[in-house]
Amino acid sequence: MPNKKNGFLQIPRKQLFEFTDQVWFPALFRDLITDGLNFASHLFRYYTPILPRLEALTDQTATIIDLCSGGGGPWSQLIPLSEKKLRVILTDKYPNMAHFEHLRTQFPESIEYRSESIDARQIPPDLEGMVTIFTSFHHFKPEEASQILANMVNQRRVIGIFEITERSLFQICAAPFLIVFGILATTPFIKPPKLSRFLWTYLIPVIPITNVWDGIVSSLRSYTVDELQAMVAPFPEYRWEIGKIESPPFPITYLIGQPNES
C-alpha cells in the first residue's frame, strides 16, 4: 500500500519483469525498442542537464565505460555539446550492434563499443575507466544494485548513475499516454527506415504494448534518493553525491561516487 512520508505519497518499489530484460524476448523487438528509446533521448535531450557534472568527472579519467547502453544511450546528444573530448566505450548485455556501429560512424574519435555481452555486475578487468549507467540502474534488484556499487568501490572506479524514471504516481499514470503518443508520432522518423518497425508498431502493435508495460515497470522499479543513500552508506571511503535535477518532462535522479583523496 502507498504510504506518506514528509507529506508526499510514497509508492512501494516493485521488482516486476520487463520484456527487454528477458533472454527469450526476440532480439528484433529489443532492437526496435532500443532504437526508439535512443531516438527519443536524442530528440528531447533528456540528459543534457547532467553534462557539467559528467565533464567534471572526466577530469580524472580519459575513458568512460558506459554500461547497459541499449541503443547507444544519450551520447549522440552529449558528445557534440561537450567542451571536452570524450572517449566512450558502449557495452550492453544485449548489444544493439547496428546502432552501436551507427554511433561509431557518427563519432569515430569518441565512440567505441564491445560486441560481446557484458553484464554490469561483472565488468571485464580489461575495461578501464570511469563507469556510467543511464536509465538502467532500476533494472537491478536491491542486492544486485548494491553489489554493483561495491564492485565500483573495490575497483576504485568513478561512477555516475543517471535516471529519468521515478517512482511517482504522476509518472506511472502518464507513462502509457506519453509512450504510445511518442511511439506513434516518432516511428516514421527513426532511421534507417525498416518495414519491421512499421509492421510491429502500427499493424501488430507489439512495440507500443511492450513499451507501455516496460515504462510503467521502470517507474515502479526506480530507486528514490533515500534508497540510494542507504545503498552507499557502507562505503565511507567514497565521496557520494545523490540528488535530483529538475528537468522537464521528468527530473533526473543521479548518484555520483568518487574515491576519497588519499
Q: Could you name the key traits of this structure?
A:
262 residues; Rossmann fold; 9 helices; two-stranded antiparallel ribbon; 9 strands; alpha/beta
Please describe what this structure looks like.
- The chain has about 260 residues and is of the alpha/beta class.
- The protein has a domain at about 30-165 and about 220-260: 3-Layer(aba) Sandwich (Rossmann fold).
- The chain has nine helices and nine strands.
- The strands form two sheets. It has a seven-stranded mixed beta sheet, sandwiched between helices. A two-stranded antiparallel sheet has the order 1-2.
- Helix 3 (about 75-80) links the parallel strand 3 (about 65) and strand 4 (about 90).
- Helix 6 (about 170-185) packs antiparallel against helix 8.
- It is globular.
- The N and C termini lie far apart (about 45 Å).
- The model has no long low-confidence stretch (mean pLDDT about 90).
